Amino acid sequence: MNSSSSSKNKLSSLHTPRNFTTVLVICMILLGICIFASLVLGSRVMSVKELIDGLFHPDIDSFETSVVRKRISRTVFSLLCGAALGVSGALMQAVTRNPIADPSILGVNTGASLFVVCGIAFLNISTANQYIWLALAGAAITAVFVFGIGSMGRGGATPIKLVLAGAATSAALSSLVTAIMIPRADVMDQFRFWQVGSVGSATWNGIATFSPFLIVGILIGFITAPALNALALGDDVATGLGVRTGVLRFFAALTGVLLCGATTALAGPIGFIGLLSTHVVRLILGPDLRFVIPMSALTGAIILTISDVGGRLIGGTGEVEVGVVTAFIGAPILIILAMKSKVRSL
C-alpha cells in the first residue's frame, strides 16, 4: 500500500513545467524560421517577392515560382516526417525504458527499407500506398525480432542488449538490401538517394498518403502518455495503478513502428531524429511524457527541416541528402549520450 501510494504521489506531482510556455514560444519561432529558410534557401536563393509570388499568385508561371512551389511540398513533407520520427523515438524510449532507443538504432528503419526494396525488385511496386504497407510490415517484423533477441538470456531486454541486437540486425539487413540492389541497375538508380534518406522527392500525393498515419500516431501518443508515465515507475507499480502493461506496450510500440515505417517508406531511412528531439525535450522539460511526446514532434520537425536546409547549402549546386546530415550530427551525440548515461534504463 505504501509503495502504491508513493507511486500515485509521484504521478500526481507531475505538473506543467514552469518553462513550458517559454519553450513552446521559442520552438514556434524556430519552426517559423525553419519554414522560411526552407522556402528561400537552396542552390537558388529566392527573394521575398519571388516567395510571395510562389505562395499567393498561382497564375504566375516562371522558373522562380515553380521552385518555390516545389519547396512548399518539400517543406511540409519535411515537417511531417520530423514530427513522426520525433514521436516514434519518444514512444520507443518509453516502451523499452531505454534512453538511446531510436528507430534507426533498433534496426526498424533498415527492416522497412528491406521490404520496400524487395517490393520494387520482385513485385514491381511503384505507388506510395504500396511502399507504406510493405515498409510497415518490414518495420514491425524487425521490431519484434530485435526485441526477441534482446530479451534472451538473463536480465531480459536490457538497454545494452537491445542496442546490440538492433545494431547487428541493422547490419545484416543492410547487407541484404545491398545484395538485392547491386545486380539490378533499375532498382539501384531509383533508390540510391532514397537509401540515405531524402525529402527532396516530396509530392502532395505522398503527403496525403502519409498524413493519416501521422495523425493517428500522434493521437495514440497523447492518449497513452499518462499510462506511459506510470510504466516508467516499473511494471509492478504500473500494474498496481491499474495499467495493463502488455496492452500498453503493444499499442505504444505499434504506434512507434507505424510512424517510423510510414516515414521510411516515403523518405528513406532517416536516422537519429527521434533520439535527438526526445533528449532535447527531456533535458529542458523533464520526463513527463504528456509534454515530451508533443514537444518531440515539434522539435523533430525543426531538426529535420533545418538539416534539410543545411544539406542544400553544404551541397552548393547539388545537395547533401538529409539522412547524411542527421547521421553526421547524431552519431557523435549518440556516443556522448552512451558515455554519460552508461546506457542506464529510464
Automatic annotation (TrEMBL):
Keyword terms: Cell membrane, Membrane, Transmembrane, Transmembrane helix, Transport
Q: Which residues form the signal peptide?
A: none
List, in alphabetical order, the GO biological process terms annotated in this UniProt record: siderophore-iron import into cell
Q: What is this protein called?
A: Iron ABC transporter permease
Matching entries from CDD domains are given as: TM_ABC_iron-siderophores_like
Name of a matching Pfam family = FecCD
* Family listed: Belongs to the binding-protein-dependent transport system permease family. FecCD subfamily.
**Subcellular location as annotated:** Cell membrane
Q: Which organism is it from?
A: Paenibacillus anaericanus
Citing just one GO molecular function, the answer is: transmembrane transporter activity
Please, which domain of life does this record's source organism belong to? Bacteria
List the GO cellular component terms: plasma membrane
Span-the-membrane segments of this chain are: 20-41, 76-94, 106-125, 132-150, 162-182, 203-228, 248-277, 289-310, 322-339
Topological type in the membrane: Multi-pass membrane protein
